[in-house]
Amino acid sequence: MTKRNEKISDVIFERVALIGLGLIGGSIGLAAKRAGIVSHVAGYARSKETRDVALERGLIDSAYDSAAAAVKDADLVVLCTPVGVLGDVAADIKESLKPGAVLTDVGSVKMAVVDAVMPHVPEGVHFIPGHPVAGTEHSGPHAGFAELFTDRWCILTPLAAQSSDAYSKAVNDLDTFWAACGSNVDRMDPKHHDLVLAITSHVPHLIAYNIVGTADDLETVTKSEVVKYSASGFRDFTRIAASDPTMWRDIFLNNKDAVLEMLTRFNEDLSALQRAIRWGDGDALFNLFTRTRDIRRSIIEAGQDSDEPDFGRSHAHFVTPEDEN
Ligand code: NAP
Predict the structure, then answer these.
(1) Domain with CATH 3.40.50.720 in the chain
(2) Where along the chain do the CATH 1.10.3660.10 domains lie?
(3) Which H/E stretch holds residue 133?
(4) CATH, range 192-312
(5) Taking the mean position of all CA atoms in its chain, how far away is CA 255?
(6) Which residues, judged by CB distance below 6 Å to any ligand atom, belong to the binding site of ligand 1?
(7) What pLDDT does 319 receive?
(8) CATH number attached to the domain at 13-189
(9) Average pLDDT over residues 222-232
(10) Start-end of H helices in 241-304
(11) Which one of 71, 94, 97, 304 is most buried, counting C-beta atoms within 10 A?
């Protein structure tokens, strides 16, 4: 594990190409430029509007209307599009990648991304899948900010089959890059990554989408009552359920096995809770709620959330630091 702000060289990658300039791509551009670890950031997004905003906001130094043109001569290429198109993007850029370049991605799922991208990685290019566990429910080129990764984890899932010295150096360079962007960096097997994120992020998002959908479908409670009386519990679910539909569709379609495995466990435990309520088993409820309160305390102690009342919402400058996607 690399702790952020460990010894960082001046420039780690001369030329970086960001493919996708939304919340994550934009934040990488800002964080890397702020840290002074890159000399030039080139960027590609599908729409001219996104490219124009990215230039205006200084997320990138130059914009390209094709991914292949953007990656030319880049020492580091970061794929920041939705997970479902990463394979197509890799196919588009494969002929233009510089020999020796480091290729990484930020996708919230890792096994499916390795399967989709790896077939297009040319000999001599070092592909190191990654996932910055940081985000908000906002998306697009206006959403990025330089502090997004500060004190958040970034998980790298280097490929076990790659054991050359050059690959190890590439992994170390990428590790240092993320640390300079503010992250604490960890390494993990891609399959394990997908299981961990299924329970910490993907299933919670599914529950949020489901409960907000259920409330919207209710016939006995009106939509205006749901909005008017949204107590903090429901309100927090609506924030998560406002996350980008394309990104989350792709996550569920591409982390199917791990999500279904965790949902089976979830459903069993939900049935046990249902039974405890039906049979008036207060001890079972009390014991679980005591255990879950301890988990919340551990998250705060680990600096992964605020213990201010209402998540510090009353403070104008508080940036919601959650959504481990
Ligand atoms: P975003 O804000 O919606 O930005 C997506 C970018 O990808 C945009 O620049 C978009 O271009 C481009 N794009 C979309 N579809 C494309 C396609 N079919 N072909 C080429 N480019 C396309 O998304 P994001 O939140 O930054 O997420 C990007 C990646 O980061 C995803 O893989 C996600 O799993 C991962 N991630 C997200 C979070 C999070 O909290 N949001 C956290 C960690 C990791 P246009 O603007 O021109 O449409």
Answers:
(1) 13-189
(2) 192-312
(3) strand 130-133
(4) 1.10.3660.10
(5) 14
(6) 20-25, 45-47, 50, 80-83, 85, 106-108, 131-132, 135, 139-140, 143, 244, 247, 323, 325
(7) 38
(8) 3.40.50.720
(9) 79
(10) 245-254, 256-278, 282-301
(11) 71
